[in-house]
Amino acid sequence: MVKRGICGFYDILGYRSFLANCETEGASKVLGLMNNLENNLSNDLVNSLLHTEGEERAKEVASLVNWFVFSDTIIVYSHFEDGEQWQDRSNRWTMMNYVCMLLWRRIFSYGLPIRGLIHCGEFAVDQRSFVGQAIVEAYDLSNKMNLSVTAYTSQAQKQLHEDKKSEEVNNKERLLLPSWMPAQLFEYSVPMKNLSASRMLVQNPLAMTLEDQAEFLGFDLRDYVHSMMSLHNKDITEPVYPKFSNTELYLRTCKSRIKAMFDRDKSR
User: Fold this and answer.
1) 266 band by pLDDT with thresholds 50, 70 and 90
2) How far apart are CA 230 and CA 202, in angstroms?
3) Helix H or strand E encompassing 131
4) Using CA atoms, how far apart are residues 79 and 88, in angstroms rounded to an integer?
5) In sequence order, what are the beta bridge partners of 75?
């Protein structure tokens, strides 16, 4: 059934080169990780909620977001429900943002950088297929971006801010959307394949703490990006170089925003 909601469309950069060049053992390991991706993300999501919610409630909130994985395509989605309250809408956005950040970090660490777009519109997804204008629109724009990133379309950004205002009006005690948005989202000039750039709202995947934050942020980003994007014997050809440099510059911006946030906290 086609319904309105939030969808994130991702593709894996360099996947064809990975399939062509990766040794059998390495390919089997990565494909195993991809096959278990949905379960692993679900478990990560529930565990992240347990410190504030009971197990039953954590599983309920985590179930607001679903996944579909096919070859090098990953779709993350959450359908809106008729008449749902602002609390449910707030939880959808919070979980969607968290899952997409977690997805980017996990897949990048596998040596398979992804490029994705979060969009709002009408679509349908089942266990074997997906249809809908929103997914087509997300695919078309995502394919133009020339780096590994998660960005929001103007439609998704508009819906997000409308739901943020609704939460601010209705909830004076625990504002989920306003609290995470400044740290995890920012506007950025996203490089496109035609050498232009488009100003878009993007996620800051480095704002998610999966390990010691100081240690992770201490990495040499150029070496890190190069090693992950060339892992599994992927071809490093001239058309790939802009993706390397664009991704590195984007992550340097992410890193500088986190450092600035830490510096502000220390000065208070």
Assistant:
1) low
2) 24
3) strand 130-131
4) 11
5) 9, 68
